[in-house]
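Researcher: Last one for today. Full complex below.
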Amino acid sequence: MNLKEQLTIYKKMTQLEPREAEIHKIVSRSEEIFFQAELKEQLSYHEFLWAQLRVIQKRWWLLQFLLLLVLWAVLAEGYEAQYVQRGMGIMASLFVILIIPELWKNRSNQSMEIEAVSYYSLRQVYAARMLLFGVTDIVLVAVFCQAVSVGLHVELTELVVQFLLPLSVTSCICFGTLCSKRYFSEASAIALCVVWSAVWMCIILNENVYEKVAFPVWLGLLGLASACLAAMVYRTLKYCNNYVEASFDRMEVG
Amino acid sequence: MNADFLMIQRMKQGDEASFDAFVRKYYGEILNYCHYRCFDRNYAEDLAQETFLHFFAKLSDYHDRGKTKNYLYTIAGNLCRDFYRKKKDIPAEHEDLEQSAVSAPMDRVLDQIVVEEAIKSLPPEFAEVIILYYFQDLKMREIADVLQVKLSLVKYRLKRAKKILEQRMGEEDAYESQRATYDL
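Model: Here's the assembly. Have a good evening.
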């Protein structure tokens, strides 16, 4: 008998069968040890938001800021009302379009499956990102509106109708297409935004329509668009785990 | 994405079924490895348990690169080395051999003792390679990864260990046949 055969026989004779009780003991102790270790390493809300903020590319916020500066310049130049109205509508759409690459970058990079199995759920990651984008954009737009109404004496009602309303509708389009259950590319979302801009310009440049619609109606439309946006955001958070190729709960572990 | 990657990520999310699946997947191998290193079922079970507890204590920082099994072997190997250092003064027990003696024929038990003694007589780094290669069926590259040494060193150790084992087991066989002749 050669060495290999002797060792094979020895292996067969001494092979141990795991005891079920031992396995159970190890599983429960392992869970215990893991959860204890996790408790020590738990991130606070602030730390989690800070971690998310670090991975967001800030250049899109810079571009949004520059866009508002351009709009400021257009308003300050005192162009004809028609041009100003067109400019505001287009800028509002662009302002929202600029967050598409960053907020939905996991989609374009096809990394949603990876994020879905990360320690924090996709819902938490999305919520943090939307919160950060939402807070920054609200601050940017609020400061802009305040500065424009005080500095350039543009009426707030005009800003609401010509800037905030198209901005809200564009946001609805982006969330509606990019967070829908069916797959839509960023290009299709942008195309829909452009179509919306065209429709908006047709409405706003048509004096017959624009003059007839009273301010409370515009305000109501803004409220409706905001409610739609809130519903879209809620839907995104509720169904974000279903965007991966298969539902995460149905993934099998071999 | 391989199964281990998914399983580890799900464990990180606290999925209890994945803990169970993971332990079941690797426990047998690690238990047997520890057994070949310490030759005692109870110690082997303790060492295997310690291996998993060490792994899970650092799970949050662990990033799967497709070598989870090798990582578990590395932890188990380190624990077995520590165990050896502590155990040097404690006299060896042969509980497993006693159990084998009840169930297996006498010559098989003697063969088992011969192999066991030959492995014990090897320098620890040689014994480690023999166990991983012949009993755990790891490839040489995997052994190099587990022991964190170069592949050439694994090849050298395996060659030397085989030579020593053949020599020792040959001596034992010669001694046994000589004894059998005298008895006749």
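Chain B touches chain A through 53 residues (CB under 8 Å). The two ends of chain B are 65 Å apart (CA to CA).
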